Description:
Layout: H1 22-73, H2 82-87, H3 93-96, E1 115-117, H4 136-142, E2 160-164, H5 177-181, E3 188-191, H6 198-207, E4 209-213, E5 238-240, E6 255-256, E7 266-271, E8 276-280, H7 285-290
Amino acid sequence: xxxxxxxxxxxxxxxxxxxxxxxxVVVTMGVLGTLVAIVAxxxxxxxxxxxxxxxxxxxxxIGLALQNHEQSHKAFPTTGSxxxxxxxxxxxxxxxxxxxxxxxxxxxxxxxFSYLINDGTKFRFAEKNGFAVQSIRDLADHGPRDTKASDxxxxxxxxxxxxERLLVSGFNxxxxxxxxxxxxxxxxxxxxxxxxxxxxxxAACESSRTTPYPLRYKTSGTFMNVxxxxxxxxxxxxxxxxxxxxxRMADQSSSLVSSTSEHGPSVNVLMADGAVRPIFDSxxxxxxxxxxxxxxxxxxxxx
Length: 303
């Protein structure tokens, strides 16, 4: 009986079997490599955007806690350990205080904060004019007290309450210099000589930085209410007034602590009314300073 023709190898009718040629394999691998090269950055960008959104959502939760505290106590928690006072009203508060978009977030320890309170535009503690710290006249007249909504005469929507600052986690004075120089905006840097005012400090910070100061933001220790200021534009390197021989305690009595992030050319800020806004590094310095004061009588709008 005559068998029908077969199309597979090994049957009576011989059919030429062929696999992939070397050229086809190379072309296929090239196509796959191209697809990976296209898709991988897109996935990375997508993940980065998710982390950025989480960072802003953390600020929104802090803002909601601020508003709830103000409604309950008729004042914002701006004295003492304000992070601890707010944390009582925030679920999973430890993770909320850390921005996941910060590359150091994975090694953050308890007491590391990505969001600091606004101290205003004066670099001496007794002259602070921001959301949190009162001037020496306020302290003399009223003593240490929380900021009330009525104190913010510039308007809640025109006054920053909190902003981002890159974490300083695991730093010590023996850290390799290269690891410090790779991310200088995380640290406050000593300047060579003590400066008398903000202008002198800004110039010295640009031209005569020396070594970094090991400043971490934490809820325990002598100085629990450390904040950031608007003297420098966003994402600038901050400085501590004087060198190690002049000042060993980072008490912010005279320092520049700028808002910094890894979002690109911008930082996220929380306004006193609870709104979260991205602020670009290119913002006019006069506007950046105006939105830091609570009663400076500046006419400004971020819209």
